[in-house]
Amino acid sequence: xxxxxxxxxxxxxxxxxxxxxxxxxxxxxxxxxxxxxxxxxxxxxxxxxxxxxxxxxxxxxxxxxxxxxxxxxxxxxxxxxxxxxxxxxxxxxxxxxxxxxxxxxxxxxxxxxxxxxxxxxxxxxxxxxxxxxxxxxxxxxxxxxxxxxxxxxxxxxxxxxxxxxxxxxxxxxxxxxxxxxxxxxxxxxxxxxxxxxxxxxxxxxxxxxxxxxxxxxxxxxxxxxxxxxxxxxxxxxxxxxxxxxxxxxxxxxxxxxxxxxxxxxxxxxxxxxxxxxxxxxxxxxxxxxxxxxxxxxxxxxxxxxxxxxxxxxxxxxxxxxxxxxxxxxxxxxxxxxxxxxxxxxxxxxxxxxxxxxxxxxxxxxxxxxxxxxxxxxxxxxxxxxxxxxxxxxxxxxxxxxxxxxxxxxxxxxxxxxxxxxxxxxxxxxxxxxxxxxxxxxxxxxxxxxxxxxxxxxxxxxxxxxxxxxxxxxxxxxxxxxxxxxxxxxxxxxxxxxxxxxxxxxxxxxxxxxxxxxxxxxxxxxxxxxxxxxxxxxxxxxxxxxxxxxxxxxxxxxxxxxxxxxxxxxxxxxxxxxxxxxxxxxxxxxxxxxxxxxxxxxxxxxxxxxxxxxxxxxxxxxxxxxxxxxxxxxxxxxxxxxxxxxxxxxxxxxxxxxxxxxxxxxxxxxxxxxxxxxxxxxxxxxxxxxxxxxxxxxxxx
Length: 700
Known about the structure:
Blueprint: E1 4-7, H1 11-23, E2 27-33, H2 40-44, E3 47-52, H3 63-73, E4 77-79, H4 89-97, E5 101-102, H5 107-114, H6 116-125, E6 133-134, H7 141-151, E7 155-159, E8 168-171, H8 177-192, E9 197-201, E10 206-215, E11 221-228, E12 232-233, E13 236-237, E14 239-242, H9 249-265, E15 270-281, E16 284-293, H10 300-307, H11 311-319, E17 336-343, E18 345-346, E19 352-353, E20 356-357, E21 360-362, E22 374-378, E23 385-386, E24 393-401, H12 404-416, E25 419-421, H13 427-434, H14 437-440, H15 448-451, H16 453-456, H17 464-482, E26 500-508, E27 511-524, E28 534-548, E29 558-573, E30 578-583, E31 586-595, E32 598-603, E33 606-614, E34 626-630, E35 635-640, E36 647-648, E37 653-659, E38 662-667, E39 672-677, E40 684-685, E41 690-696
């Protein structure tokens, strides 16, 4: 076994490799970029060496620099993780040439499986089932269209060098083929530098099922059963589970045998995944080879859970020249496991990736990087920044239970206990998916998200009254911790003999509301319903402004309000974040955090948000004098188009923000003079951060 390895990666996978290495007594060397100086993977490794700039091309893709660091630190091997250089045959070869062990397959195996067309020709020769298609060298557009016509529509055009959901187009009819081919080729050139494509029959109601395989340098092969990865958005996986629902013993054996033959065809050793597209037709499932990933997969923990095998440990053993620890007959499936990828993204805005600070990051009780009922693998901590330079994944939540039904229940509970505040994320969206009828009943295919869209997007699981009461309670609880004992110094409007009224502005689902509370003294309540809690109480009225056209003249529109809620509320807060509410005779436990006046509310039933504006806190502000401009998304400042003192006209470009290669231009809301720039080019900004201030022309 090695005494020291270098981990040529970052984030969750670097931490995951380091955890197994530490358990085995292997020292680890981390590399890091400018953006990752304070990253978790830097802290957990025994050594850390600076690699370069924040962009991957300046750091994690610098193979020569990584090899030089490995040699300088005395590392004997390099673990590439996944992504970056993990499937780069030239890097694997360079490691070998430098006298280092590449913890992965040979460069030849990576090359053989790296091109989709070449790999399919190899699989055809090895007898692995292929979906009908064309994988040849003739790339003339008219010839490819003829092939598609003969295969029969719909067909899928795929970039031969593609991956990650890029370079793929579904063609429904022959007349659309040429335009979609051109589009696919443009994307393939941009993403992979290679516009060669292949044509495949597009499977009806397809499932994505893959087999985890392992080989060693002694000619031994095993598979560690299958994973279902059908739930996808933008051709990228969202949920993975093992074993795959509906796969019987005969199909499992057939797929496992085919996967091993695929690995054997290229003399594969190490961890690999053979991916199959499974067509569901006439009550039966037919599987076809899709591609082989010559690395450890993101979703490998579900295979670890059902097999009891540490796959990273096996990677290290095989790379050190040792035989596989187990034979096929010694492996068995134990229970069911599901993995949910928690990502910084906005599902309601086409899954736009998000960046920002994890102001709140709370997790359910769990283990890390080892099999358990609830496991969380991550490479971040509360307070860390999700930058625009790398993948948007925050963590992987993995659950394991005796049955799928129990695993689903455990996953729902664990997601309900996960609290993330500071940037958009998909935790609530994941709960919506697993509670759909399709997923809960294992009616799976790659179009599940589109099919269940009405149940998944723009959902509001908490009602206005619960959100409003929690937000107000959070405000009152926060104020109570900051005030002294003098009742006249408190903002609670203390009166010796009377109530008081306090108003708040609310914004919920982009609609404005006004809330008023009439407060009276705290009281100890033990009425049988509410227990013996020390409760505070107030009467809550929520009103919404409406337009009324039924006035006497019937000529003008008069603004009126409609009362949407009125009731008595009791509450007890153990701190600013944990609240027990009595609302409409129902007891509700909530947690809340506030960021930029938005209150994020969590209950067992779901998570939602509401903006609370304390009208008292804003009294006296001169809102008309100054124009402030905020970032519409988390990202990086590309450039400011103006300088302090410049005169600007309404609509004139002021700044450019980039997030995940998407640019947004900020324009002046009014005529004025630039008073202050609050960031500089290259700075990271969060959603809602003020970028600059302008004095309006009216205020000069």
